[in-house]
Amino acid sequence: MTADWQWDDTLFAGTATYYRQGRLPYAPGLVAALAEALRLDGRGRLLDVGCGPGTLALDLAGHFAEVVGVDPDGGMIAEAERTAVELELKGNSHWIQARAEQLPDGLGEFTVATFGQSFHWMDRARVAARVHTLLRPGGALVHLSDLKSESRPTEGLPHPPVPHAAIAELVRSHLGPVRRAGQGFLPHGTPAGEAAVLTAAGFGDPRRLVVPGGQALTRTTDQVVAGVLSLSSSAPHLFGPHLPAFEADLRRLLHDTSPTGLFAERQPSTEAFIWQR
After folding, report:
1. CA atoms of 146 and 237, how far apart (whole Å)
2. Is 234 helix (H, G, I), strand (E, B) or coil?
3. pTM for the full predicted model
4. Collapsing DSSP states into helix, strand and coil, what is residue 4?
5. Less Cβ around it within 10 Å: N or C end of the chain?
6. Considering Cα of 41, then 44, then 50, then 52, what sign does the dihedral take?
7. For 132, left (φ over 0), alpha (ψ -120 to 50), or beta?
8. Which of 2-6, 29-33, 107-111 has the lowest mean pLDDT?
């Protein structure tokens, strides 16, 4: 990570129950695009590192004989296990509470390792080197994120757009001007430069895959609130006893923006870089 921030166990504390309701989904067609690009045949093994509540691993589970999700947050692992049972995927999914830097021995060999918007929270050089040893020859590490370079216009949406700028200002008014993360601060944001890290770990040149978004998504007030409380920078524990006051202010802001309680925003495109071992 950055020199002025250290990871700690509270990074996503309390966010798991909000995650699935509040986070925007990956672009439609991502699973099919990955299945084609990686030539998935239902027989390999997937390691999802920083799996959160299992969103990506469970979406991909039908294309693997086994998926293993790893996350340091116990709430995330509990949500992943609960959802796997709900989706009748418990038989080929396994969940491990651990930091990526402390992946246990005995995991076996994997066909694919995925990082769904999680790699930037880790000791990237250490994790990349370890994952390289866990992939079979020809296996792939897949780094996924929203496509940061695209604009998502608000014109033509069926409801008022989610007031992201006003929400960010409200968070700052409660938590201060510098971005929070666990017990620390991220004044300069999370690090970039994944390509250099993965090249140094022994991976070959990546293939870039973009799955387009752009669809208009309708969001309710509850979903927008959940999205805010699912973020590390506005996790529930950061507000302490003032959480009810923050949520009341947030709901007031949202009501003033859309009295119907309905909002809309464009589905982000998903960008994937596929790094072969």
Report:
1. 26
2. helix
3. 0.94
4. coil
5. N
6. positive
7. alpha
8. 2-6
Q: Has residue 48 got a pLDDT over 60?
A: yes
Residues making up the chain, counted from first to last: 277
* All structural domains of the chain: 16-276 (3.40.50.150)
**What separation in angstroms does the CA of 30 have from each of 10, 68, 266?**
30, 19, 16
pLDDT digits (tens, 9 = 90+) for 142-192: 999 999 999 999 999 999 999 999 999 999 999 999 999 999 999 988 888
Q: Quick check: helix, strand or coil at residue 267? A: coil
Residue 4: is its pLDDT beyond 80? no
Query: Is 209 in a helix, a strand, or coil?
Result: strand
pLDDT of residue 37: 97
CA atoms within 13 A on the CB side of 269: 15
Per-residue DSSP letter, 269: P
Cα–Cα distance for residue pair 169/246, rounded to 1 Å? 12
Which amino acid type is present at position 151?
Answer: S
For the chain, report the end-to-end CA distance as a whole number of angstroms: 24
Torsion-angle region of 144 (φ positive above 0: left; ψ -120 to 50: alpha; else: beta): beta
pLDDT per position as a tens digit, 58-78: 999 999 999 999 999 999 999
Return the axis-axis angle of helices 243-257 and 221-229, rounded to nearest 10°.
140
